[in-house]
Design a protein that fits this description.
Strands 1-2 form a two-stranded antiparallel ribbon. The protein is mainly α. It has six helices and two strands; from the N terminus they run H-H-H-H-E-E-H-H. Strand 1 and strand 2 form a beta hairpin.
Length: 126
Amino acid sequence: MTSIRRQGWTALALLALLGCEAPAPPATTPPPAAPGPAAPGPAEPKKEADAAKLSDTEIAEIKKLPEAEQASALAQISCPVSGALLGKMGTPIKQKIGDKTFYICCDGCEDEIKTNPKGVLAKLNK
C-alpha cells in the first residue's frame, strides 16, 4: 500500500513540474499527403480550416466560454505561450495585453505573459 501511495505522489509531483510544457502525445492523424497540384475551386475559409485541427473534446472546452468569446478562441486555435491547442488542457483562459484580447491554454502560461508580454504578443501576431 505504501509503494502505491509513493508512486501516486511521485506521478503527481512530476505532473506539477512538467505542467503545460510536457511533450504532447503523438498525433493519431495520418501524416499529410505529398504536395500535389491544388484542386480547382474555392479555397476553404481559414476559420473553418483552422477549427478542423481541434478535436471534439477541445471544441467542447472552448464552448464552455461565454458565447460572445467562443468565435475568437476558435479562430485563435492555439496558445501563444506553449503552442498547445486551446481546449486541450481545459477551458481556455482569457487574457489581455494592452488592447489585445487572446486566450491561453492553462494558468501555467500566465507567468510568461507577466514576464514577457511583448514576446507573447509577437507570437500571437504571427
